[in-house]
Amino acid sequence: MRPDGGEPEHVALNWGDLMAFQRLAAELNFTRAAARLSITQPALSVRIRRLEQSVGARLLDRSTRVVRLTTAGRLLKAWTDHAARSWTEVQKMMVDPPEPASGTATAVNRLPCRAV
User: Fold this and answer.
1) pTM of the entire structure?
2) Is 55 inside any structural domain?
3) Rounded average pLDDT over 80-92
4) Residue 21 domain flag
């Protein structure tokens, strides 16, 4: 819910923003996280602000020296960690798809045809 009591705005999540947040949440340091992501600190800040707007919650407590996750940030970090692991598993399956459990499936497509 928004601070004014209205419904939260539904904004599509950006996978890159989520992964940037995941890196920042792991590092708890904008300089190191930006370097690991090969982006600038201002670009990382933009991604985090956009993600906070998307989820409708503040994810970080920031000061000039310390970055801490809020409760919402800790929840989102757990989710992004799980999502990243799942995505890695999907990528591996696409490269080396598992064999069917057993047997084979056969499909017959019956198309109407006319004798001429």
Assistant:
1) 0.68
2) yes
3) 83
4) yes
Mean pLDDT of 53-70: 91
Backbone φ, ψ for residue 28 (5° rounding): 50, 35
Across all residues in the chain, what is the average pLDDT? Answer: 83
pLDDT of residue 45: 96
Distances (CA, A) of 105 to 78, 98, 102, 108: 39, 15, 9, 10
In a domain, 105, yes or no: no
**CATH code of 72's domain:** 1.10.10.10
- Tokens matching residue 28: 């708890």
Domain count, the chain: 1
Amino acid making up residue 107: A
Domain that residue 72 falls in: 15-95
Cβ–Cβ contacts within 10 Å for residue 100, how many?
8
Contacts 24+ apart (CB under 8 A), 66-71: 66/28, 67/24, 67/28, 67/29, 67/30, 68/28, 69/25, 69/28
Q: Does residue 108 belong to any structural domain of this protein? A: no
